[in-house]
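**Reference record**
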Amino acid sequence: MGARVRRIVFPTEEVSVPWLKQHLHCKQAFQMMPSRFNKDAAKGLNAIYQFDLSGDGGGKWHVIIKDQTCEVKEGAAASPNITISMTAQDYLDMLSGKLNGQMAFMSGKLRIAGDMGLALRMQSLFQQ
């Protein structure tokens, strides 16, 4: 007998970030970060962003921005400048535009420890 095939349907009206349609899991989203990195926006920035994502598909990743380059590593950083914590699903919803970052922060879905100014730079550092 033939193998069972599952179809995944993406709600195009809710997903505003084209590259995210192909990357449903946090791991793939982090792997794509360097290709979306805007080095001009990172001029003069040397920082380590720590992401702690809980729940299904979650994990820990850190993003090192130094000398206008971006490197993503799985696992926790020894001394990040900022730590962003939320559920994996909320993170994906935020990337897709379904969840507004400011609303997530105000409602407690997004927690930030460290340099808040770095959180505000995220949107300019990574192209949609």
About this structure: Residues 23 and 29 are 6 Å apart (CA to CA). The longest helix spans residues 26-36. DSSP finds four helices and five strands in the chain. The chain has a mean pLDDT of 85.
